[in-house]
Design brief:
This protein is an alpha/beta fold and about 375 residues long. The protein has a single domain, classed as TIM Barrel (Alpha-Beta Barrel). It is built from 15 helices and 9 strands. Strands 1-2-4-5-6-7-8-9 form an 8-stranded parallel beta barrel, surrounded by 4 helices. This is GP-PDE domain-containing protein. GO terms for molecular function: phosphoric diester hydrolase activity.
Length: about 375
């Protein structure tokens, strides 16, 4: 078990209150990313579930004390179906909706402030223009607001950590998606400085933070600068995961549609055999959420943590009934072209081209790296 799975020292789980924010009706996220592959959410066929295993038979055989756990739900950019993505309002709403974690993206401004934002440029979601890394926070980016109402400022990294440290959120995790446009040494150094500036950070923060990495160039700096934080490879390509990340990462954050393929079934088995966690993204439909439960993944990354909360209650009441496949489970993968392998393989190819264009080739030399996590050092804050 990695440190991320262990309870935080001295922390007693608390219930989170129901949301008091006026949450709009949930609808599919319109989120898009800076790369070609981020512009569309695609799906691939789950044919392997019929050829290789019967999910319901497996479920029945595990209905007892089998070590199976309900997947966690990590709010994708917060509760981004309800509030502007990657904003304090979105993060707070995700916590109030019962999310077990928050997934967010990080960039560095020109004056070395860490901000939580998906794209390298401002124009898609805000009234700002230009690249984040070329503009300072002070006097410029601090005044930018989201186009989507309620109009929100760009949050700094410290602000999401402050949310996590609220008493009602002491068990909420933070999955930090480290964008490839960043210099990894500089990024991890700044993250380290911010985290270690909090009192008792070793117990209150470090056990709840996860580094999400897209490119192998982030592995060695992560091990060197933040050796006490788990590393999750983020990918759409399973061959890429096996070749570049499997021996050096504790878990994987994988496009749902990729996991639903025949190779996805094999990869899930490989990870289970090696004790590696799997997160599926971005999962916004009831059927896909239930399928993640049948697979037994570590977490569901969703724009709609409130929807997952209702499904979770069903699972807690009657697991077998809640996760039993329906006709929809078997038929839908064949009716939508998004479920076929050529869609997610095209996505993976386009994404790899983008990542290598921004971050350089994946074929870099890595020293021998231990998967063991260091114990956070004890430091004195001033």
């Amino acid at each position: 078990m990695s440190d991320i799975d262990k309870p935080t020292n001295g922390m007693i789980p608390t219930s989170r209150p129901e949301s008091t924010l006026p949450t709009p009706a949930l609808s599919p996220s319109n989120s898009a990313g800076p790369s070609p592959a981020f512009s569309t959410v695609l799906q691939s066929p789950a044919v392997s579930e019929f050829e290789l295993e019967n999910p319901f038979d497996k479920l029945q055989s595990q209905a007892g004390g089998d070590g199976w756990n309900i997947p966690e739900c990590w709010g994708h950019r917060g509760a981004s179906a309800s509030f502007p993505e990657n904003t304090k309002a979105s993060f707070v709403e995700a916590c109030k909706a019962g999310a077990d974690g928050i997934e967010t993206d990080i960039h560095i401004t020109a004056d070395n402030v860490l901000v939580l934002f998906h794209d390298p440029e401002l124009h898609r979601t805000t009234d700002g223009e230009g690249l984040i890394h070329k503009q300072p926070w002070n006097g410029v980016l601090e005044h930018v607001r989201t186009k989507k109402a309620p109009h929100q400022p760009i949050p700094r990294f410290t602000e999401v950590l402050d949310i996590l440290l609220q008493p009602e959120n002491i068990n909420v995790k933070l999955n930090i998606d480290c964008k490839v446009e960043n210099d990894p040494v500089k990024l991890f150094g700044l993250i380290k400085d911010v985290v270690q500036g909090y009192e008792d950070w070793q117990n209150r923060l470090a056990p709840r933070l996860i580094l999400g990495i897209w490119h192998p160039k982030f592995i060695t700096p992560a091990c060197t600068i933040l050796p006490y934080l788990p590393r999750y490879a983020i990918s759409m390509s399973l061959p890429q995961c096996r070749k570049y990340f499997f021996d050096n990462c504790h878990g994987f954050s994988i496009l749902y549609e990729t996991l639903a393929s025949s190779d996805g079934a094999r990869f899930r088995a490989e990870c289970a055999a090696k004790g590696k966690s799997i997160c599926a993204w971005t999962v916004n439909s009831e059927e896909e959420m239930r399928q993640c439960g049948r697979w037994g993944v570590k977490s569901v990354i969703s724009d709609k943590p409130d929807l997952w909360r209702s499904i979770r209650k069903e699972i807690e009441t009657d697991r077998v009934k809640a996760l039993k496949p329906t006709i929809q489970s078997y038929i839908l993968p064949f009716l939508n072209p998004r479920y076929y392998w050529f869609y997610h393989q095209r996505l993976a190819r386009e994404e790899t081209e983008y990542l290598e264009r921004e971050g350089g080739t994946f074929d870099i030399h890595l020293p021998e790296i231990s998967l063991g996590l260091s114990k956070p050092p004890h430091t004195t804050t001033i």
